[in-house]
Amino acid sequence: MRQVLLVTFRVIVLALWALVPAAACSAGGPSAGADRGYAAPIAGVGSEAAEALNALQAKEDALRQRASRATGDAELIKLDSLSRRIVDDVDKLVETSLQPELERTHAQLDLLGAAPVAGAMPETPAVAQQRDVLTAQQARLGAQLRQARSIKGDLANVDAQIGRLLHEHLKDQLALRTDSILSTAFWTPMVHPEAADYQSLRALGKQVEKQMQSMWQPGRFLATTILLLAAVVCATVGASLLERTLGWVCVRRLPEGRLRRSAFAISTVLATLATTVVAIHLVGVAIGGRQSLSPALQTFTDELVKHIVNCALILALGRAFLCTEHPTWRLPAIADPVAQALRSFPRTLAALLLFSGAIEQINRAVDTSLQITIFTRGLVALIVALAIGASLLHANRVRTALAAAGNSPEGRSTVAGLIHAAVCVVVVGALAALVFGYISVARFLTYELVWFYIVLCSLYFLVMLTRDVCESIFLPTHASGNTIKHLFGLEDAHLAQISTVLTGVFRSTLIVAAVVALLTGGLGTTPADLIDSILEVLGGDRLRALNIVPAHIFSAVLTAGVGIYLVRSVRKWLDRELLPKTEMSPGMRASLLTLFANIGYVLVILQSLAVLGVRWHNLAWIVSALSVGIGFGLQEIVKNFISGLILLAERPVKVGDMISIAGIEGDIRRISVRATQIQLADKSTVIVPNSQLISQNVRNVTMGNTTQGIASLVLTFALDVDPEQVRDILLDAYRDHPSVLAHPAPSVMFSQLTPEGITLTVTGHVRSPRIAADTKSELLFAILKRLRGADIPLSNPRTVLIHAPRGCLPNGLGAAGGGPHHSSSSSAGTTSVSANTRKIASSVEA
């Protein structure tokens, strides 16, 4: 029935629209004239709005150009005010013209309905023309609305740019001198404000009052009350319950150790921040409701919310740092009386900053004059400086009282003392700047001091947390450490090393982030702003030139880790599976493994740099620096590196060879790219640079014949012995020794005949050069035993002592300096007395 009535109503409307042009035609006027009379007003709808939008667009373009050329604070403040007026004009145009006209056009189109489908009852040309005109009007109004939104978005970007420029100019104009806080002119704006400032404040007050009235409308009274009560409960009771819950989790669920204390401190901060954010959100829902805020009020609330979160962070960090409710869980070494004395400081500082920050945000929202702005800044600096100074004096009095009582208040480090002294200097400097009229300097110092407090406390807690987390995860007695140990086959020492390295990496990263925050941030900086600043510092011009993207760093690290694991796995497989099944010698296998590992690591480094996005044609500055470094200090390293590659390629010596170089004789145990390790007979190791093995004479004992060694002895006998009998004794001793090979057979060579005796050299081959020394020792024992059994002595050295009056000996034979005697000795196996000496001895005896 309802559908029938709707169809009937539509038919009636269509009939009435059809009668209008018919009546006009019967009156003698053409129907087109009537159509044009209808279409003309429709076509004119929105033309004025279009012109207004074009004018606002032109203003926005001019504002952007002026902002890019602005150099002074006054000009930037004017541009900021102009931008806000343009936004207000855009909102007014949308609310009063575009949006109502679009809704009216849409309603008319709904009244006409959709165009008839094929086969249905046709409609009159006037209705079709009307539908077309309304459709075009709707599209035009939609485009104008989109243009208005685009202008607002561009103006928001301009406002952000102006804000950044104002912040930079504030830093540049810190030396601006105004009235001192001791003068009457400084306090005049509080008693006699300017008329423009008064009107601006009243306008903002009316907006706030209007918004408050919308909150307590009869239909929203109950919802607003519930939301505000929920916000209060969340900020008070909810914060306490959440903090206790997180504390219980830290005590009961976390492993024993220092991790519980650091996690408890972080949980205190997180509980306060979380409940504050939730409470702010509830208040925002209660205030906003269905009615949107004006641009000025919206900017004021956004900045005020940031300031409230910062104040909550100050309170949370102070409570966690002092930890007066649980002294045994306190992280820093602060005496309990000192902590109790500073207990109210975080709450007082947060409240004062909230009050002063709200005043500053009101000034920014209403664009107050320079005089009241300076007054507000001076008031804020005075409040913050006095609060910090009073807390320092109170804490120092408590420490002095403890020291006078003979109690050590706390074990303060040098860094803590320096920080305390720096804070005192800054507070005194801020108060002095206020007295001498440098209000901007005082405000800058106090706000930077508060920002330093936030950054330093956050850094301290995060460093402690990361250290304790790493130690707990990799502790062998904990479940996590035991799992990692058995999963990767690590030792306890390896877990300790990993924990130390990760702690150092996290600490360095946090310190870098803190330094960036101190240099580029300030009070009111959000975590997103801080992350952007860190990424901007990390992605500087030089890194951009190398095409390093921070997002690729993780991929590069993962690629390096996987590549190193693959190289080590393949190397282990070659060492244990493939190469032992070949006919290669152990030295050859070791050389191939070392060469494979070096090439593999180089390829992994190159691939990691490629994933990181490094462009090799931009590494000219690195190559230049390396060239200079090689020329001055790295030439020895490069020379040893090249020598190592030559040793691995040509293999003049290899792992397992027995070599002798510069008086060092031993077995090669390892050849790396820089040095070679040689193990001596006493199991000690000598590290020889590879360049020496290339540039010096090296004796490779095992290179030509790796299976045999030579045990050779040189013995000197008296002239009256039978050489053939001695030869037989020596050969029998060699033949009877089990280490001497039968082929080639041992041999005896008559080496020398001198007045002191005859010298015989006996030689035998053993199965390895490494047992030649031990074989020589055993052969000497056996030969001496056989010679004594045959009553054949060796030629032993003799010492002749000659006593004679001074001047009786020939020239050159007396003791040095005219001494009373002369002694002479010879080496083993030879006679030490020469022919002249024997003659002199005979004459002395006669």
TrEMBL record:
Lineage, top ranks: Bacteria, Pseudomonadati, Pseudomonadota, Betaproteobacteria, Burkholderiales
Membrane-crossing residue ranges in chain numbering: 221-242, 263-287, 374-395, 415-439, 445-465, 505-525, 545-567, 588-613
Domain Mechanosensitive ion channel MscS C-terminal: 714-792
Organism encoding this protein: Paraburkholderia youngii
Compositional bias per record (Low complexity), positions renumbered to this chain: 821-836
Signal peptide: 1-26
Membrane topology: Multi-pass membrane protein
This protein's UniProt keywords: Cell membrane, Membrane, Signal, Transmembrane, Transmembrane helix
Family to which the UniProt record says this protein belongs: Belongs to the MscS (TC 1.A.23) family.
Tree of life domain: Bacteria
Location in or out of the cell: Cell membrane
Span of domain Mechanosensitive ion channel MscS: 637-702
Stretches with biased composition (Polar residues): 837-846
Keyword Nucleus: no
Region annotated Disordered, chain positions: 813-846
Name the record gives this protein: Mechanosensitive ion channel family protein
Domain DUF3772: 145-206
